[in-house]
Amino acid sequence: MLDIAPTLTKTYELPSFSFDGWPLQDLDTQNFYDRPLAFGRPLYGNDGWGSLHQGYKYITHSGNEKLYYLPNDGEERRSLAKKQSKQLLAGREALSK
What we know:
By secondary structure, the chain is of the alpha+beta class.
């Protein structure tokens, strides 16, 4: 959803505004992997949110925090929340954007 407005603006050559997202036409030139992606209610209900950033998935649900490194733990079996404080803070920060 974040990228729809910039994509349509570029497609139809409309006047540009300041968008948080990126045009999908730029997939080959932008590093989408570096951009934090926040998500929430559809997956976790009213009291749960999460973010993806550089392979890490951060989840907060009912006050409990979890952190997974998806390239090594795609099934989300081992939370790294107590070991990876830098990535935990990055996950929290992504939710504020």
